[in-house]
Amino acid sequence: MKKKLFSQLWIYFASIVFISILVTLLCFLGFIFLLSRHSISPAESAGKPTLYPLFVFAGFSMIVGTGISIFVGRRILHPISALGTNMSLVATGDFSIRMDEQQKVAEVQQLYKDFNVMVQELNSIETLRNDFVSSVSHEFKTPLATIQGYVQLLQAPNLSDEECQIFLYRIIESITQLSQLTENILKLNKLENQRIQLEKKEYRLDEQIREVIVFLQPKWEKEQLELDIELAAVNYTGNEEFLYQVWLNIMDNAIKYNQVNGQIHIKLFETATEIVLEVTDSGVGMNEETRDRMFEKFYQGDTSRQISGNGLGLSLVKKILELHDGRIDYSSIEGVGTTAMIRLSKQ
Question: Does domain 201-300+310-345 have CATH number 3.20.20.70?
Fold first, then answer.
């Protein structure tokens, strides 16, 4: 059975006060009446003490007390009513609402502060969501338009076998880009929204990094890169699957943004408190804007070169490292190269 809800809290508050006053007065007057055994009528109380003035005063007190309780009740409950009104506005999508935090009551002041923080966070989330949808739409649109264009070209008559192979290669390349984008979005969503508990185990970190280097061998051989590898034997307790993505992204970037016949230096070592992986390339480097925005979702600093990517790799890297109490720092000089420094705390 549902309890009755009061649409006006001040009425509920005033009713409670009124009933409390009434019951208290009745008990008090009844007690006095029984003790005195006097008449309350002026006509019957000649020459005797009377309780009539007392009852008049009690009635007047009830009226005044009830009026005061209504006034005070409205004043006390006004902050709650104002909060309810503003919450309704926020529910409609108005995140510009802010409440005055300068209140005389400490509890109300803290309540308004918490409300303002909540609205600010909701506004940030809504902004990120809109940016995310816009960016995802744009990132999907580009490869889809490419696929559509090459499919239309394949329908043209009198195409040579070489042209068909080129068009098919471009289509496959765009499909791969779509697949990687979808996979990265799902991984990032899983890491950010589900607050998962990572399954961690101890394993050889240096061996995993060697696996990544071997996996990327076709890429760095194609660019004729020279690798200088120094990997100390290191055991680490972490999530092997997610950390593989970290090393893969970092080294893939070192290859993609390098120069032909360039160098990559990969060094893994330990300090007293940390495990450190240092990856240095001799590539194009980064400007200040790219360094400041490199961890933003979908941000790609170098749009002038024909480099495939979706701008989610470093967002994934940063989130995975945070889940391992680690961090990543970059130093870069344009035209000279970039160094990525990954630090994992020893557990």
Answer: no
